[in-house]
Automatic annotation (TrEMBL), chains A, B, C, D, E, F:
<dbReference type="InterPro" id="IPR029032">
    <property type="entry name" value="AhpD-like"/>
</dbReference>
<dbReference type="InterPro" id="IPR052512">
    <property type="entry name" value="4CMD/NDH-1_regulator"/>
</dbReference>
<dbReference type="InterPro" id="IPR003779">
    <property type="entry name" value="CMD-like"/>
</dbReference>
<dbReference type="GO" id="GO:0051920">
    <property type="term" value="F:peroxiredoxin activity"/>
</dbReference>
<dbReference type="GO" id="GO:0047575">
    <property type="term" value="F:4-carboxymuconolactone decarboxylase activity"/>
</dbReference>
<protein>
    <submittedName>
        <fullName>4-carboxymuconolactone decarboxylase</fullName>
        <ecNumber>4.1.1.44</ecNumber>
    </submittedName>
</protein>
<feature type="domain" description="Carboxymuconolactone decarboxylase-like">
    <location>
        <begin position="33"/>
        <end position="118"/>
    </location>
</feature>
<dbReference type="Pfam" id="PF02627">
    <property type="entry name" value="CMD"/>
</dbReference>
<keyword id="KW-0456">Lyase</keyword>
Length: 134, 134, 134, 134, 134, 134
């Protein structure tokens, strides 16, 4: 893919989740940097850069899907943080997760909810850390 | 569950998808009417009647999850029709489905897209039928 | 595996579902007879021949699992017929399927229930056919 | 849902698994108490309170399904403890798990078996603790 | 993505499965041409064009994965045909499918095997058709 | 199954992964030794001892399937080590994992890649340990 898409993807990833995104890419550097590049180029440079849905809708869809699948806890946590970053409220997030009980069963919803609890607590911890530094 | 919840669920189901919802409930009548009752009471009387997400957000989350799971084509079609009914655009729907390629792979996205193609065509057929009747 | 296990498996398969089991084995004859042999030897000659669970418990567990997985409709139908054959009541079967709404979501339970509806109807059809022949 | 169903669900949950059930509900209190309420009301007040299957059959079905799905280890452990509580023998439980090798593959059966090993050990530990206190 | 990748992807797709690939792309033309473009660009222009694995290894991996997942029968059939096209023998294909019984259970292996039976029969039909035209 | 198959399976398991295989069997000894016996007899004595695919092809198929399923991390790690043992290169392994992004989504590929990173590091650690002992 051309250079422009990588740059666009990196930019988009930064809007969505600066810290976690970078951590994933870094952790792939010594095993499969190209997989990291595809996440940026195809994931964020293409899909997340398309018109038709705003970032709040995209993160809501992703939280729903990863909660339902139940096989991607690390990625769900990244996107729970991203969901907060793009402006979804905690209520919108927990309602989305709860709704998955209907489509993927209660264990999926429970495991998604416990992931959200963890991500929200980390978010609070970082916010209070930042507050105390000012 | 009390009577009120059943009534509320039925009302909510009608807002979302009048025809398909009723068809599912009817088809359960002679094998497990209680499963149909739970769909209405717990699914629509509880979850879909909660504040925090509007119906467009709920249907977007459901389309995302059912596309990603790939084990619920009949229910995906019901909710693709519901997504149109509650005002999601075709573009919002196809973008949601396409995004699932990232989280559940291309076959999931392709099978979701072919379901959308079918549901949109049926929607057009019904619309042109109604138009011709006036 | 030794000859005895194949014979024992065939015997066990006949107790569980004479017609459907044979049909599966036959349909594998020209593509992978060994896969059919493993179904009989390992599936029925080993697992279904073990003490510790009776056949009703084994079929109840299988109906639960296949309903929850949602990727094995043909095999679910075979085991729904088998569940009737080993003496589970229709109520026990539909309650097992309904319970899966909790663990795998409503679409899984609904698709399982519609499979049961089909299998029960076929069972009635065969029963009335047999009755009319006497 | 009306008050009665919540009370009935709580009662049913206590019969099935007093400690683990309460822990799940408690851990939801500050993130989504309503999800905990639905587990009690819909899960235990409705489904697990229905006639047609006894609690041993219900737990056997749940152990089968959660082992096969492979995405719900915490919930599988809760229900392995519940299975013991309602009187299923260890042999019935391990046979159910082993049978899942046929329907969901060996990794699912192995991971289920290791969960059972852990739950049985904890059960023994608690039993010996109680014995030493008398 | 730049033009070159689309061309490379189309070329690669033709090597793998000329007819079925084109049919998928065509069927997306009026609902989501971009999804078809991504299949070509990212799927075939990137992944299937990478060094490190030859096309036989790639198709063997794909047949294994799609058989195990059990949610992608249409795509499994496309790749069963592709597996033949790139030179895998029928024995290599059926052994790969059979092996999935270990990792995803017998229903997955059975449904994969019946798909292979269908694809092999269609392959024979086309071959005899071509033979009769000469 | 007869004695010969157990011996053949044990032999085959040793070729594939001496240490990890034995560990799994040992850890089943006090909960379900028969499940361990079936892994050896049916898994290695039957399936992995069949002609038609060599061990490199079998491990490539297994790595692909377990990465795609995403529910079997412990077993994936065993087979990543086995893949190295039977002579697949690290590049062949990481390419197989990366390809799964197409069929099961990026989270499946990422989680598979992180498992490979861990297994490769352990492999290096053992190799440098052995080197230092000479």
């Amino acid at each position: 893919m051309e250079q422009g898409i990588y740059e666009r993807g990196l930019q988009r990833l930064k809007e969505v989740d600066d810290i976690a995104g970078e951590k994933v890419i870094d952790s792939l550097a010594d095993i499969s940097p190209d997989l990291g590049r595809y996440v940026i180029e195809f994931g964020f440079g293409e899909i997340y850069s398309r018109p038709g849905l705003n970032l709040q809708q995209r993160e809501l869809a992703t939280v729903a899907a990863l909660t339902a699948l139940g096989t991607a806890q690390p990625q769900l946590k990244v996107h729970l943080a991203a969901a907060l970053n793009v402006g979804l409220s905690r209520l919108e997030i927990t309602e989305t997760i709860m709704q998955m009980a209907l489509y993927a069963g209660f264990p999926a919803a429970l495991n998604g909810m416990f992931a959200a609890k963890e991500v929200f607590a980390e978010h609070d911890r970082l916010a209070s850390l930042q507050a105390s530094q000012h």
